[in-house]
Records
---
Amino acid sequence: MRSVSIEIRGLSVFAYHGVHPEERENGQAFVVDVWLECPPSRADESDELADAIDYSAVCDRVVELATGGPYRLLERLSALIADDLVARFGVTHARVRIAKPEAPIRHRLDEVAVVAESSAGPNSAV
């Protein structure tokens, strides 16, 4: 069996997270990238979705979690999503990056982002 990774890039979500009250009141766009390390499976031979991680379902779950809350810190939200993906989808490792393109910072920048990682097994969250 081969190892397989899944990458989901640029998943746009409108949500109400942030330290400042106006961020939680007005909301803003967030961009989520997800990397999943999958356990060995037969998907590469069977060509069956039942043998694979359904990345459409992963996107649905990420959006569900990202529109929950609200959370003050992206650190909390990204860790919550990473831990959930490992537990729910049985992946061996999840890396979640959440970018905030319109962060209320007085300096010119493209975005700020936070990355959290989680792995299967006890005490293995990074």
Note: The chain has one domain: 4-119.
---
Amino acid sequence: MKVIIENQEILLKELQNFKKDLDIVKIEENHWHILYQNQSFTIKLIAKNLEEKTAEWKINGKSVIAKYQSELDVLLQSMGLSSQNQKKVRELKSPMPGLIKKVHVKVGDEIKKGEPLLVLEAMKMENILKAPVDVKVSQIKVVEGNTVEKNQILVVFE
């Protein structure tokens, strides 16, 4: 399995090949303590998006968004047949409740994948919400200072 964390690819070995180096203790559902090469990690799964193949993790108290690809995804991408290239995104929804701190775009802007759209403050942390693909902004449904709920539509794309 191939995992991409903050634009860095990490290739994971099959679990049976590298579990000898891991000591994993399940604390509760979606929450583990891991010892790996004499280092201690507390890892908790916060949220996952099966459609976008992303997961938000809290690792030793730090939030990390990981994008993962199956072996089939890697094969299709190597052949130039990535299903992500064909995906049409119509809107950006809030991944969690929070406060809109900054709006980086305006209607009509053409935004490249990965460029910032908004800053959402949640649980005392600022989260930069970025464009999932190349898009053109057609509507902005929030302004700075708005509080939003999880899955609330924030930006609509053409």
Note: The two ends are 33 Å apart (CA to CA).
---
Amino acid sequence: MSGKINALLFRVWFKESGNKKNQIEIKGRDFYDLYWFLQKGIEPNWKMLKKTAGIKDSKELKNVLTKRIKKVVTPQKLSYDLKNFLSDSQFVEDFSKNYLTIMSRFL
């Protein structure tokens, strides 16, 4: 889980498009995996998170993740990657549209 948190905070990736509005700088799978870990109640390796991201406790982690999600996640960006991994296109669409609401239950 700590590796996934580091990936969604620090991964450098960019999908270029002719239209700036359609440019994507996140991997949707990182944000889906975060959801999966949180819904399972899995705790991160706090020692690793402190060393790699300076995050000391769950309150700080929730604040950092909430800010990151609000800053970079949009339904279009999230679904771009997820549609390649999840076969249920309706689930991907619904999950992507409602990600912020879904995650607010965990963060």
Note: Residues 2-104 form one domain.
